[in-house]
Amino acid sequence: MKPLIQQIFEANYRVYGARKVWRELHRQGHIVARCTVERLMRELGVTGAVRGKKIITTIPDSSVERAPDLLDRNFVAPAPNRCWVADFTQNAAMATAPPHWSVTPPGDRPGPC
């Protein structure tokens, strides 16, 4: 089965993943489980092409000294709802939307809440 998988993989420009190799095997009349094709492809060391591009937003430079913690941040809350922390991470889907969020502790909100 491994030579057949390798032949299908090579014949399709080395871009077919396990699902497409499995479907091609079925078209050729070789009935085999998809998990078996996945396992055999791992053993062969072949993988399909991966679409998309991983976005790396920050590459830290280990040779530069980090900025000091001027705010003396303490991330330990003495009780529930006392210490709020927000993390704004860049998201590719939100990269074009303007930021319009804010974090307000419950005691600072206007109204009855």
TrEMBL record:
Residues 4-54 form the HTH-like domain. This is IS3 family transposase. It comes from Streptomyces brevispora. PANTHER family: TRANSPOSASE INSF FOR INSERTION SEQUENCE IS3B-RELATED, TRANSPOSASE INSO FOR INSERTION SEQUENCE ELEMENT IS911B-RELATED. It holds the Pfam family HTH_21. The lineage of its organism: Bacteria, Bacillati, Actinomycetota, Actinomycetes, Kitasatosporales. InterPro entries: HTH-like_dom (IPR025948), Transposase_IS3/IS150/IS904 (IPR050900). It comes from the Bacteria.
